[in-house]
Every structure is written in C-alpha cells, then in structure tokens.
Task: inverse folding
C-alpha cells in the first residue's frame, strides 16, 4: 500500500502529551545526524513535489512547453466545468461503494464462520489471507484472462447462460469486471481484520445473550454487529482509500480506463492526462484535489471512527 | 459454541470452503493456462485440468521471454523486483529506526517540528504527487536506476511512528542501567534497543517487502529501459490489445511467478505478517 497506512497510530501519537522519555542522552549534533537521512528523503521526495504540484496547478503551459503563465484558479475552474472530470468523481465513488460493500460483506460472512472453535481453523485462515500478497496488476491479469470474451473460462460460461459478455465494448460490463477483481483482492484483508475484531469480543457477552434466549441470528445483529462497529468503520475508510488508489494497477492491466472512459477513476485520470495529454497544469490541479480528498477521509476517520463509534 | 447444533459445524465448513474456492479459482485457472500451449488457449479450447507444457513454458518465461512484445526474460524482472522490494524494506527500516531513536532518546531544538514534518507524510500516497516527483527524479538523473525506483517510496513515516511507539514502551530503567555500565548512545542503541526491536523489525519487514514487491504506478513511470522493468510492469506489457498476439501461457506463468514470493512470505511467516499488518494499520 502507500505511506498513508498507520493514521490511527499517528493521531494517537500526536495527541498524547507525553512525547518523550524522562531520561535522555545529551548531544548537540548527534540527534540531527540521526534524523538527517529521513528528513532529506522526505523533503526531497515528499515536500518538494507536493509544493510543486500546488504551484503547477496555478500555471498554464503552452503547447510546446516553452512558456508558462500564472492563471490563478483557471485549471480548477476548467476541471469543475469538465463533464468528464465530474463523471470520473462519480465513478470513483460508485466503484468505492461497490468494492467496499461486496468485499466487506463476503469477508464478514467468512470471518463469522471462521470465528468458531472449528477443526482446522488456522488452515482455513491461511487459505483465505494469501490474496493480500497478490499485486493489483497481477489481479487484473488473472481476471482479464478468465473474463476475456473470446477465450476466458468464465466468459464462456456467461455466454452459455445467454449473457452477451463483451467488456471491451460494454462500459458497464468493464466496470463490473474491475469491481469484481478489486473486491476479490480485498476480501483477505477485510477477513483478517474482521476475525481479529470478532475474537476481541468476550465470549461471556454472547453466552449471556444465549442464556436470555437470543437465537444466533438475533445475537449477531444485536450484539456482535454493534460491537464490531469500530472495525467496520475502520475498514470502510481503508476500503475507500484502496478503491481510490490501489485499483490503478487493476484498471491499467484490464481496461486502461476504457471502453470510452467507462472505467477511468480519478487516479487513472491524473495518470493518463499527465502522460498522454501532457496537460500538466490540469493534472497537477487534479492531484491537489485528490490530496484534499485523502486529507478529508483521514480527518473523517479521526473524528468519527476513532471517537464516536465506541461501545 | 453456545448451543448444540443439529448438523455440527457443517455450515461454517461449507461456507469457508466456498470462500477458499472463490479466492483460489483465478489462480488455479492461471496455473492451468500456464501448462497448456498457446494455440489451444487462443482457440478458446482451454481445458480445466493442467496440461503437459509446464517445464517448457516456465523455462521460456524465466530465461527467454515472450517472442513478440517484451524481449526481456522474466528472470531479470524477478531480480529487479527483488532488489526494489529489499531496498524499500531495508531502507525504510534503517532510516526510521535511527530517526525514531533520535526523536525518543534525545532532546534537541526543532525536535517536534521534525516529528510533525515526518508525521504529515502519512497523509499523502505517492499517487497524488506522481508527476512532480517524476520531474524531480528526472532532474536528479535517477530515471532507470534503483535509487530512483526506491527513494520516493521510502519517503514516508509508517515505520518511524511504529518504532517511536515501541521505543516509548521500553522501560527507562534499561537506559539508566546501561548508562551505569558506561554505555553511550551508540552502545545503548546497538546492544540494548536493537535486540529488543527484533520482532517489530521482522514484522515490519514482511509487510514492507510485500508492499515493495507489489509497487506498480511508480515503476511504470520511471522505468523506460527493458532491463530495468519489474515483474509487475513486465506482465502488463505482455498483454497486447489484439488477443492473437498475446502469449497467454507465458503471461500466466509470469503471473504465477510474480505472486509466488510475496504469497510465500505471507504463508510461511504468517504470525509476523498478521502482526505487522495489524500494527501498521491500527
């Protein structure tokens, strides 16, 4: 994944007042030498490009790349009035919801089933978590092969039951393909965290409900599900971030944003506009908007996931 | 379980096996395809049982490469991916260990400023600053080099925060004890703190290796030479838009080879993997 992972830890770290040990070493230069490598890498490869992105988003380059002019918010205004960009935003959100919903529900079902004293439960866990390690482009290749209209195994099956399957021409089918593949990869991650969440629920609570006569389904919805809510909200945010960023590799190997932009997400658009169109100003403005979205998601996670959804 | 069930645990076993089949099916198909010959697959006549071309396909994939599209053998790509993953994992752990050490065990001006400068990098993945970063790497003449491939991905705070958190839990008495023994900051770090951090380092290494191995967008932009390609990039270039030209057995063998190392890491080092994953995310 990306560097955006341990946000929860970071915020806890940031919030805590006690930031240091009572007893420490004293040295004038040594601590600076120790932080120098990380600081250098972060400044050169993180802050400098981030600042560049913001600056570039206010500039307009001519067709030959010879001169640039400062255009204030023109790049943003242009983006906002671009129907293509608007549909990319909508599409990205739809993808996120579809991927998160399908992957989370299947993973929750599997985790609930695995959270019992079953024979071979470690074996089951191993066989369910390994897809985490499969890279998005490889996931794309696996699925594009199975669903290839002329030679794919599943595509043949779909034909046999009368579905006119051709994701190379049909945008909705291409989108379904991306969602399926992306959700498939994310099952293992969600499963792992659901299982950890379930195992943290004390069995005495569930036994007490059983003594009161609550049947398994009722116990699940009235006790287990509410107690899992912090895990669920955490996973929703992680899945949305995943759908935003990690799907790039899947999309690039499966559909390359097509047909007719039917699978072009925000990240894919930043990539293709900058690479193929060469419109760096617009690409930079899109990057800045993406940064905004990520920061908003992170803030949302801090405010609501960390504090409100508690039991 | 709480109540006695009529059919024992039949339902959970059934559901879990269905889940395992869903999860394994695409990989099984890929493996089967990698053992059959190209003509059969191109005709749509692929059998669902392994064929007899296993050795032939994998030899060709590893040492020769596809005939038409990328001429690079997958062996080279595997090597590049391995170097990249190792550099990202080791580099990140090394620089974060020492910076976390400085932040926790020293008191110096701008300590908190530096901490926040590092902390903020958590928020923004490389994807959102991709072209400006590309330009900087190009200006530094680092395109098509391992340094250019890995340095921008090392620039994040994940590991630093983890080590900081861990160092905070190390009892102060240890520092005082080694002080009495006359140990300076280097000795304490090397003899006391590093051995204590071993499990954390291993767990983090497992996660970072997988993440490094699976990088895609960044290598896609900055590698132009065929011999610098990682396996994730190579596999994409093997798929040609016209189906007739794609050598599917080789592509599928490459997919299997690409997932083998990280999957092996997850399966063989499951405890460390789960620990690393839960710790880096929560």
Result:
């Amino acid at each position: 994944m990306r560097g955006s992972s341990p946000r929860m830890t970071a915020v806890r770290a940031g919030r805590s007042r006690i930031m240091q040990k009572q007893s420490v070493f004293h040295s004038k230069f040594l601590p600076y030498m120790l932080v120098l490598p990380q600081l250098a890498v972060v400044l050169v490869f993180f802050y400098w490009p981030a600042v560049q992105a913001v600056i570039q988003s206010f500039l307009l380059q001519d067709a030959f790349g010879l001169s640039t002019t400062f255009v204030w918010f023109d790049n943003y205004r242009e983006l906002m009035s671009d129907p293509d960009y608007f549909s990319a935003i909508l599409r990205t959100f739809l993808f996120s919801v579809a991927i998160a919903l399908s992957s989370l529900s299947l993973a929750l079902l599997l985790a609930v089933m695995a959270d019992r004293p079953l024979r071979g439960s470690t074996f089951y866990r191993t066989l369910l978590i390994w897809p985490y390690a499969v890279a998005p482009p490889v996931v794309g290749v696996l699925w594009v092969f199975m669903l290839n209209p002329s030679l794919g195994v599943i595509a043949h099956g779909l034909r046999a039951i009368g579905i006119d399957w051709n994701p190379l021409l049909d945008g909705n089918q291409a989108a379904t393909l991306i969602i399926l593949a992306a959700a498939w990869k994310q099952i293992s991650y969600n499963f792992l965290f659901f299982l950890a969440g379930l195992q943290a629920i004390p069995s005495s609570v569930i036994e007490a409900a059983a003594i009161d006569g609550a049947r398994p389904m009722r116990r699940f919805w009235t006790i287990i599900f509410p107690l899992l809510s912090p895990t669920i909200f955490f996973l929703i945010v992680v899945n949305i971030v995943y759908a935003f960023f990690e799907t790039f590799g899947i999309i690039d190997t499966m559909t390359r944003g097509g047909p007719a932009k039917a699978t072009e997400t925000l990240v894919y658009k930043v990539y293709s506009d900058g690479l193929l169109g060469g419109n760096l100003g617009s690409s930079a403005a899109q990057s800045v908007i993406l940064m905004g979205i990520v920061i908003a998601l992170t803030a949302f996670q801090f405010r609501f996931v960390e504090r409100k959804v508690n039991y | 379980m709480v109540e006695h069930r009529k059919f024992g645990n039949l339902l959970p076993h059934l559901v879990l096996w269905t889940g395992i089949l869903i999860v394994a099916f695409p990989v099984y198909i890929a493996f089967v395809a990698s053992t059959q010959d190209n003509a059969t697959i191109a005709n749509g006549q692929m059998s669902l049982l392994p064929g007899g071309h296993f050795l032939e396909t994998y030899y060709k994939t590893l040492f020769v490469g596809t005939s038409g599209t990328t001429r690079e053998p997958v062996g080279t790509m595997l090597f590049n991916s391995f170097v990249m993953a190792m550099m990202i994992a080791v580099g990140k752990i090394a620089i974060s260990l020492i910076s976390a050490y400085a932040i926790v065990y020293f008191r110096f001006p701008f300590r908190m400023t530096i901490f926040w400068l590092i902390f903020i990098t958590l928020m923004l993945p490389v994807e959102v600053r991709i072209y400006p970063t590309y330009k900087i790497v190009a200006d530094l003449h680092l395109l098509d080099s391992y340094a250019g491939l890995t340095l921008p991905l090392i620039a994040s705070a994940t590991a630093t925060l983890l080590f900081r958190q861990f160092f905070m839990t190390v009892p102060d008495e240890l520092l005082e004890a080694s002080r009495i023994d006359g140990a300076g900051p280097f000795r304490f770090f090397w003899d006391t703190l590093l051995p204590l951090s071993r499990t954390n380092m291993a767990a983090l290494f497992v996660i970072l290796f997988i993440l490094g191995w699976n990088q895609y967008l960044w290598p896609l932009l900055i590698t132009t030479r065929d011999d610098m390609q990682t396996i994730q990039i190579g596999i994409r270039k093997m798929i040609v838009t016209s189906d007739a030209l794609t050598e599917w057995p080789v592509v599928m063998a490459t997919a299997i080879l690409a997932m083998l190392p990280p999957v092996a890491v997850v399966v063989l080092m499951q405890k460390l993997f789960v620990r690393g994953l839960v710790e880096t995310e929560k």
Remarks:
- Chain A has a mean pLDDT of 81.
- The longest helix of chain A spans residues 83-114.
